[in-house]
């Protein structure tokens, strides 16, 4: 802790010499992130493949690099506007006084990034932190050790450690990191670890953003085009082998649509992911075992497994994606975040029972709805709580920089992306410049309200009422 404390003091001292970086300095730092990725795409793809065993470079470019490029482009376009003071209304009793809100950098932002998208989820918060004028200290996940180490070396090459510092290490290092007195700490990962991070941050009253996960439902309404819904759900579930915090975790569908949905789901999965090189592998043996245990538990309780892919290349995939039907209500797969290529399918009677099923669980990070019935859609939107929603698709709300991304309740605290990221890493300072009526000092500010109290204050109170 002494070493880390000294390191944080050094970064804070560097921030103190430049507490309000200019627009040009902020954009130059963001530009360095963009250049760093642009010039090292191929190497990053290879190191990610080494961590996951199988990960198609195109998937990496889509899910990691494009998100970073989009954030850089959007921030570059809007940052000048975000940095401007916002004028606000003042009460008439303050005469010609002027009030505004000025965004100000917080200082040093701690980022604890996960293993599932280890480049995107490390650098998107860093872009937002730099946009707000801060310095950054990153602790990437140890479960993708090759990528974390490579990213640390890259950042060291492009940034001074008092600008953008990286510390790699195991869970003990992460525990020490989360206990540092950052000016803001962002954690992305599992709910169980998020609670530990929050407890550690509380010791220093460190403001915190938690990006967690949970069981994100996909509702297939009776008015849905089943083929289109199946295609979108197959993609959302099998991208990165389901190792995505906003992957559709389970499907809610009426019994009469179940058979056709399964047929279309299998066809879509086969069309999209039949090539073993297109289906990302589990990050490690621990993740693989978790998937196997979820399936075994469901089958032991009477569930039926339906393969989503035919397997002409036996053994080429470490885990075969499946759907699960006829699930027992106490199956683990219905209560724990799946985070893998396993899709539980639950039959419901109607929209009301779908809503009831969702509301009996903690708030999910995402919700997906498929259909054409606007009344049912509005009912779902109004009566459920989730971090975000995509209608007639999956995942895509997270790719829109102008939409805040974050959870609610157990799926997270706070949001970032675009302006929301700038705001969460800024202090919004309230400023009032007091002036009298028409420039006269007689009725300026608090003069009419000062003791000794008498009829003048009484008249003021009646005026203010």
Percent strand equals: 15-25%
The mean pLDDT is 96
Q: In whole angstroms, how far apart are the ends?
A: 55 Å
The main sheet comes to: 7 strands, mixed
Low-confidence stretches: none
Q: Helical percent range? A: 40-55%
Please sum up the structure shown.
The protein has 465 residues and is α/β, with parallel strands linked by helices. The chain has helices at residues 2-16, 23-38, 41-52, 57-83, 120-131, 145-158, 171-178, 191-202, 226-238, 255-273, 285-300, 351-359, 374-383, 418-424, 455-464; strands spanning 86-88, 98-105, 108-112, 135-139, 164-166, 184-188, 208-211, 217-220, 250-254, 304-307, 322-325, 342-348, 366-370, 388-391, 405-406, 412-413, 415-416, 426-433. Helices cover 43% and strands 17% of the residues.
Explained architecture:
- With about 475 residues, the protein is α/β, with parallel strands linked by helices.
- About 45% of the residues lie in helices and about 15% in strands.
- It has 15 helices and 18 strands.
- The chain is globular.
- The chain starts with a helix and ends with a helix.
- The relative contact order is 0.13.
- The model has no long low-confidence stretch (mean pLDDT about 95).
Structural features:
43% helix; alpha/beta; single chain; 6-stranded mixed β-sheet; 465 residues; 7-stranded mixed β-sheet
Secondary-structure blueprint:
Blueprint: H1 2-16, H2 23-38, H3 41-52, H4 57-83, E1 86-88, E2 98-105, E3 108-112, H5 120-131, E4 135-139, H6 145-158, E5 164-166, H7 171-178, E6 184-188, H8 191-202, E7 208-211, E8 217-220, H9 226-238, E9 250-254, H10 255-273, H11 285-300, E10 304-307, E11 322-325, E12 342-348, H12 351-359, E13 366-370, H13 374-383, E14 388-391, E15 405-406, E16 412-413, E17 415-416, H14 418-424, E18 426-433, H15 455-464
Parallel strand pairs: 3-4, 3-6, 4-5, 6-7, 8-9, 8-13, 9-12, 11-12, 13-14
Antiparallel strand pairs: 1-2, 2-18, 7-16, 10-11, 15-17
Helix pairs in contact: 2-4, 2-5, 3-4, 3-6, 4-5, 5-14, 9-10
């Amino acid at each position: 802790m002494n070493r880390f404390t000294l390191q944080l003091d050094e970064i804070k001292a560097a921030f103190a010499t430049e507490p309000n970086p200019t627009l040009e300095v902020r954009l130059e730092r963001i530009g360095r992130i963009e250049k760093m990725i642009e010039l090292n795409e191929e190497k990053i793809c290879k190191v990610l493949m080494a961590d996951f065993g199988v990960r198609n470079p195109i998937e990496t470019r889509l899910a990691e690099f494009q998100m970073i490029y989009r954030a850089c482009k959007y921030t570059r376009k809007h940052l000048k506007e975000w940095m401007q003071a916002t004028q606000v209304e003042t009460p008439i009793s303050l005469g010609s006084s002027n009030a505004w809100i000025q965004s100000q950098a917080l200082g040093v932002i701690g980022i604890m990034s996960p293993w599932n998208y280890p480049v995107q989820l490390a650098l998107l918060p860093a872009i937002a932190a730099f946009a707000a004028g801060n310095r950054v200290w990153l602790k990437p996940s140890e479960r993708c050790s090759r990528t974390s180490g490579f990213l640390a070396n890259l950042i060291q090459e492009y940034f001074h450690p008092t600008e953008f510092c990286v510390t790699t290490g195991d869970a003990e290092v992460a525990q020490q990191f989360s206990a540092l007195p950052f000016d803001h700490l962002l954690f992305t990962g599992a709910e169980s670890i998020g609670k530990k991070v929050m407890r550690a941050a509380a010791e220093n009253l460190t403001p915190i953003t938690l990006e967690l996960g949970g069981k994100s439902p996909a509702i297939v309404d009776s008015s849905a085009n089943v083929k289109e819904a199946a295609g979108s759900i197959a993609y959302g579930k099998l991208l990165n082998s389901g190792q995505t915090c906003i992957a559709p975790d389970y499907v809610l569908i009426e019994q009469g649509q179940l058979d056709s949905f399964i047929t279309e789901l299998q066809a879509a999965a086969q069309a999209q992911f039949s090539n073993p090189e297109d289906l990302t592998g589990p990050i490690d043996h621990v993740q693989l075992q978790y998937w196997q245990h979820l399936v075994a538990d469901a089958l032991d309780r009477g569930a039926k497994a339906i393969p989503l892919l035919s397997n002409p290349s036996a053994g080429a995939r470490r885990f075969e994606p499946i759907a699960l039907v006829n699930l027992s209500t106490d199956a683990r797969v219905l209560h724990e975040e799946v985070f893998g290529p396993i899709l539980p399918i639950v039959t419901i009677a109607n929209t009301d029972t779908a809503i009831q099923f969702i509301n009996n669980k903690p708030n999910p990070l995402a919700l997906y709805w498929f259909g054409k019935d606007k009344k049912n859609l509005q009912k779902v939107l109004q009566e459920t709580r989730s971090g975000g929603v995509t209608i007639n698709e999956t995942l895509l709300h997270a790719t829109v920089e102008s939409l805040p991304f974050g959870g609610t309740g157990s799926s997270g605290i706070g949001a970032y992306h675009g302006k929301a990221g700038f705001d969460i890493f800024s202090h919004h300072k309230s400023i009032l410049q007091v002036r009298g009526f028409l420039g006269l000092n007689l009725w300026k500010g608090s003069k009419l309200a000062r003791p000794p109290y008498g009829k003048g204050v009484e008249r003021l109170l009646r005026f203010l009422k």
